[in-house]
Amino acid sequence: MQPRTHVTLEDVAKAAEVSLATASRALNGMRVTPQLRDRVLAAAEQLAYTPNAHARALAGASHRTVGVICHDISDPYFAAVAGGVMRVAGDNDLLVMLASTFRDPEREIAYVSMLRAERAPAILLTGSGFEDPRWERAMEAELKPYLEGGGRVAVVSRHRSLKVDSVLPENRAGAAAMARALLDLGHRRFAVLAGPPALTTVADRLGGFRDELKKAGITLATSDIVEAPFTRDGGYGAMTELLDRGLTATCVFALTDVMAIGACAALRDHGLSVPDDVSVAGFDDIPIVRDLTPPLTTVALPLPQLGEQAMQMALTENTGRRRRIVRLGGEVVIRASTAKLV
Amino acid sequence: MQPRTHVTLEDVAKAAEVSLATASRALNGMRVTPQLRDRVLAAAEQLAYTPNAHARALAGASHRTVGVICHDISDPYFAAVAGGVMRVAGDNDLLVMLASTFRDPEREIAYVSMLRAERAPAILLTGSGFEDPRWERAMEAELKPYLEGGGRVAVVSRHRSLKVDSVLPENRAGAAAMARALLDLGHRRFAVLAGPPALTTVADRLGGFRDELKKAGITLATSDIVEAPFTRDGGYGAMTELLDRGLTATCVFALTDVMAIGACAALRDHGLSVPDDVSVAGFDDIPIVRDLTPPLTTVALPLPQLGEQAMQMALTENTGRRRRIVRLGGEVVIRASTAKLV
DNA sequence: CTGAAAGCGCTTACAG
DNA sequence: CTGAAAGCGCTTACAG
User: How far is the CA of A22 from the C1' of C16 (A)?
Assistant: First the structure.
């Protein structure tokens, strides 16, 4: 293996018989005599020169690689959000460093630290935060010096203690609206497939749903709520548990579509029909759910927009004195997975 | 906004009252008197110091950020492959720069160039190459100097002219096996939903399927093949076109699951039943297809493994004299979307 | 083991 | 407009 040798600006300058400064300027499109410029460009082309981004960043030129952290890129929710992020990144000639935490809070902190080391001009945290004092403190400890160093941070979903620019899907309102819609369909007995209680998203969606039911005089018992991982298998397992306990609900609300998909599979495997035996509703409106049989009733969130807006925020300076918040509403979409009982 | 000021190693060294060299060594876990080491670590902690990755990379330390290029991260196929990539990356403390080309060949080249500038020690190209001489030449022009500079490249899927380490899903064999399976079910009239002809994956899957049919004495006419984008909507549109022409096939083979999902939706919207009226088969076995109704018959590829293996290859030096090739077989999985006619 | 110094490859005032 | 030079923040031989 040959020594890791790269063509440098100096090589280009020599080949073009100009100074380093001139070569640099020509390559960066600054004022240079056309004649010299052409010589530099030709030399660079001929040598297959690529500027060293590290040297560039070190020397003070702005760095065009932003950081994005998600829980799991193979989850359709994050894939959709990331799609929006990538679009805006592409439009702005930005490279994205994408980290997948696999839902490990420690890992999320470690990635922020790495991104900080990379001097990413902006960091996006997609996916909800953890309601854990230790985590919050550690995250703040990473973010504070980053922000003080001029870094920008934007988050998708609520982070209780993080005072940064945020794109907030209206989880609480969306879940409440879903409760109303389900009530309107005539349902009175519900069960909820919830995710890890430490996630802010779980608290918000569950809270919104429960409070709205309470207004209608319906109380959600602890036994009506099953906690499981925010995954397809988590939904499958939670639904199975509900079934084993003897399901009395006519409608099951899964806090995410991915869980709802698992729940439907569990019902099918138990020989039950959706929505004839049990109605199922989800949250998010990931692309696939409209193609399921039956298509899933859900709270539709503009997933790509979540990512787009967050990236856009991270790219524009916040001139105001306080953090910016963009709220993106969710819309209840009634599809065939929920039966009308009245 | 305060000046973009960062805590540097020098600050840490001063606070700890040691030299730059000692501070560097202490932070990098090299031999240093425990006493000094503790002082340095305490100072770093106290100042919330993060080493500047650019300075580090420039100074010769190895850079732990690899590049990965895919066509569209929000596509379940790439999301699944990327999941595998991220897992291996995480296990190796690597950060991943992920670029989404949105299926634009030009963009792919541009991203390789950017990744080259970032001095990524490895670049992964996931997603099939383009059979286009111009593209091939441009890609080679980027890759050659990169490889010569010590960079590593691994690709998922075939790239005709790229002589680099590859993970090859057995597209041709898989499609052939599918043809046989479908023939065994009794089907004799087929239609194919193909993708852009310039993609090597299309050529391979279509070729394998067609050749196998031919062995059974069945010729696929040009009119039996519809080309469309490799997306859900592409599949929907292609199926609709087939229907408008008057479908005579008893079985439709979509070259990807994502297209198959669109095809099923189109059939449903036309009031046709899968598999009672038409059988549908796909390719890839993206996670969701087992949860569809009916679940999809497909050629199952170990998607996360595709990414894992490629990443693993890019991480280990190729000591041999020739490029490495890992072939990952696809297995036909017959599910309910294909009817048995005999 | 520790420190002074060179060097990584650029950019950007500063002179000319 | 062009060039010589300083400096970005590290790491790593090279002495001691």
Answer: 15
Q: Are B290 and A236 in contact (CB under 8 A)?
A: no
Determine contact, residues A193/A260, Cβ cutoff 8 Å.
yes
pLDDT (tens, 9 = 90+) of chain B, 342 residues, equals: 334 578 999 999 999 999 999 999 999 988 889 999 999 999 999 998 999 999 999 998 888 899 999 999 999 999 999 999 999 999 999 999 999 999 999 999 999 999 999 999 999 999 888 888 999 999 999 999 999 888 999 999 877 778 899 999 999 999 999 999 999 999 999 999 999 999 999 999 999 999 999 999 999 999 999 999 999 999 999 999 999 999 999 999 999 999 999 999 999 999 999 999 999 999 999 999 999 999 999 999 999 999 999 999 999 988 888 899 999 999 999 999 999 997
Nearest to B54 among A6, A57, A261 (CB): A57
Residue nearest to nucleotide C7 (CA to C1'): B59
Same domain, B122 and B164: yes
Q: Are residues B70 and B164 in the same domain?
A: yes
Q: What is the pTM of this model?
A: 0.93
Q: Do A118 and B111 touch (CB under 8 A)?
A: no
**A187 lies in the same domain as A214:** yes
A336 in a domain, yes or no? no
Same domain, residue pair A77 and A46: no
Are residues A180 and A255 located together in one domain of the fold?
A: yes
Provide, as residue numbers in chain B, all residues whose Cβ is less than 8 Å from the Cβ of A258: none
Q: Which string of DSSP letters, residue by residue, matches A5-73?
A: ----HHHHHHHHTS-HHHHHHHHTT-S--HHHHHHHHHHHHHHT----HHHHHHTTPPP-EEEEEES-T
| Distance (Å) from the alpha carbon of B47 to chain A's nearest alpha carbon | 9
Q: Are residues A284 and A322 in the same domain?
A: no
By C-alpha distance, which of B269, B303, B296 is closest to B280?
B296
**Domain shared by B262 and B311, yes or no:** no
**Is the CB of A58 less than 8 angstroms away from the CB of B54?**
yes
Domain count for chain B: 3
> Do B271 and B149 have their domain in common?
no
Q: Does B160 touch chain A (CB under 8 A)?
A: no
Q: Which nucleotides of C are covered by protein (CB under 7 A)?
A: 1-13
B265 touches chain A (CB under 8 A): yes
